Amino acid sequence: MRADRLRGLVGPVFAPAARRRLARATGGGPAGRTSYGDDGMEPEGAARPGVTVDSWSPGRTRLLAAGVGVGGWLALGSPVGGLIVAGYTVLALRMWRDQRAGRREAVHREAALDLLAASVAELRAGGVGAVLLLPDDDLDRSVHAAQRLAASTGAPLADLLERLEAQSRAADRADAAAHAQAAGAQLTAVLLAALPVGGIGLGYLIGVDALRILLHTPTGVACACGAAVLQAAGLAWTRRLQRTGGRSAVGRSTGRFTARRRLRGLPLRRAVAPPSRRTPWLFGVVAGGAVFALLPSATGAVLGTGVAAGTVLVLRRMEPAATRAERERALADLPWAVDLIGTALRAGAPLDHAVLSVATALDGPLGTRLQRIGRSLRLGATAAEAWSHLADLPPARRLVTAVERSAANGSALAGALHRCADDLRADTAVRRQAGAQRAGVLIVLPLGLCFLPAFVLAGLVPVVLAVLGEVL
């Protein structure tokens, strides 16, 4: 029954990735690269050779890293060397997966925009222009929200999709510029991570075996482990700096493969469990115990108690990750929601009905907030009282101001909402470019605190010890 209903939803504009997922959901054969019929479905029993990025599981990564680590152990004659080689193998595979996933997502997004343009052209020509699933998750959610809003309010779907395509292409151009600005920081991190190898090679050029000191003496092993930890921390720090300048991670973390999850779990979505209140106390006890273990005395006990109390206080004041992710997702959906409300107003819907229709069309935390706003407006609340549900979103102040101004003097609200949505998108693009420029400057922090000390430990200290050993 469910399979027949899903097969009946196939439209004339349908992405290959969505076809494969729909074929798997309806029992249409194994997933893979193959040809499709005119109905958009995958033939029964089609084969899918090859390994994709999705199929490269973490278990396979760990297996390959273990194999490379054993090979490094045998080649270097040191278990520490094997562990370090295995760790760098994991890091290299993760970087490879991220690059492949980024290129794949870019291809999927371009294909989704092309499908969206084809659907708009079909709508303009008087056709149906049905778009069931798109390979890009952000566009897929936005298109389905536009379809639901058009069905409930009579808003022109072609105008909505055309505006979505134009704004998405403009956002992609801004993301490409920000990524180009952040490329220098990424290349700098890779070059700095290779500095210890250059130091060891320099030792061989002057005739000393720095690698033997590094892997077969207690001091060298300590230096090697410390350098590996520092480099891992530096790479993680640099990666975090790059994320602040690139595209928002909301779509990659919470909205990835939304269409697949929609088909996989239609009944209900499990609620995310709130963080435990005992977690700060646990970290506080661990931090205080570590201080007392380093200083087993009365002074250490006092310092450990202070460190434990400070750790608990800081962790309890930190914003939970779930709350931060919810707010970031609401901010990411805000410009499109404002566009949808403005289009519904142009279609003749009153403000409360437009807000409730958009809340129903959108899923996620912003839809919940808009539902509260619509209900408040329907119950007779003032504009300031109803729109106070967006008070914790600083970019939404411009939206609230426009609504309050319209309620006070009776001016048209639809045009102001479209201008507000454009301003929100422009501010987002500016923040991304500013973050990319900031990342290029802040790269000096992992450089001075992580990469250079790692170079001293793994590249200079073994060479100096080897030279002193030969001289003395």
Give a structural overview.
- This protein has 472 residues and is mostly helical.
- The chain contains 20 helices and no strands.
- Helix 6 (157-193) runs antiparallel to helix 9 (218-245).
- The longest helix has 46 residues, at 79-124.
- The radius of gyration is 28 Å and the shape is elongated.
- The N and C termini lie far apart (84 Å).
- Mean pLDDT is 75; it is low at 1-54 and 248-272.
Low-confidence stretches: 1-54, 248-272
The value of Rg in angstroms is: 28 Å
Order of helices and strands: HHHHHHHHHHHHHHHHHHHH
Distance between the termini: 84 Å
Shape: elongated
Overall pLDDT confidence: 75
Query: What's the story with the biggest beta sheet?
Result: none
Beta strand %:
under 5%
* Structure classification: mainly alpha
**What helical percentage do the residues reach?**
over 70%
Say how many strands there are: 0
Subcellular location: Cell membrane
Keywords: Cell membrane, Membrane, Transmembrane, Transmembrane helix
Main location: membrane
Membrane topology: Multi-pass membrane protein
Task: Give a brief description.
With 472 residues, this protein is mainly α.
Question: Key terms for this structure?
Answer:
472 residues, mainly alpha, elongated, 75% helix, disordered N terminus, 20 helices
